[in-house]
Amino acid sequence: MLKKKVDNNFIKDIRKNKLTLGQKAADIVTGFCGSWTFIISLFVIMAIWMTLNVYLIFFRVWDPYPFILLNFVLSCLAAVEAPIILMSQKRQEQRDRIRSEYDYKVNRKAEREVKQILSSLLKLRKK
Question: Which ranges in 1-127 belong to alpha helices (H)?
């Protein structure tokens, strides 16, 4: 009974905080950017880019040795990715806050019930 009442309140709290399109996108992008798939694919793309550049340096100049264009692309990736990760962390903080409120409510309800049980036991002992 206790769990069911608090669960309903918890579900209502979550539904009140409906996600915007930006919040959903931030969670999805962060989920992908924080994966090994992203890291490995980024290293593969960089290796291919550098290999092609070193090979093509002999024939025509595309992105000369310091790989300025590659540097620019990686800087742009970091500049876009950082705020998205921060948005997702903010969402996680909100979820953690809701969970902690839920835990607090459960603990308070359990404490009240334990007090009721103790008072009932004391009454029984007195009789």
Answer: 2-16, 21-33, 36-56, 68-126
Q: Output the pTM of the full model.
A: 0.56
Number of structural domains (the chain) is 1
Tens-of-pLDDT digits for all 127 residues of the chain?
A: 455 555 566 555 555 567 788 878 888 888 888 888 988 998 999 888 888 887 777 777 677 767 788 888 889 989 988 888 888 888 888 889 989 999 999 999 999 999 999 999 999 988 8
Residue with tokens 């996600």: 19
What is the span of the domain harbouring residue 50?
A: 2-126
Which is nearest to 54 in space by CA: 75, 34, 70, 36?
70
- Local structure of residue 34 (DSSP, 8 states): T
Dihedral angle sign, alpha carbons of residues 76, 80, 86, 88: negative
Half-sphere exposure at residue 21, Cβ-oriented, CA atoms within 13 angstroms: 0
Quote helix, strand, coil % in the chain, to nearest 5: 85, 0, 15
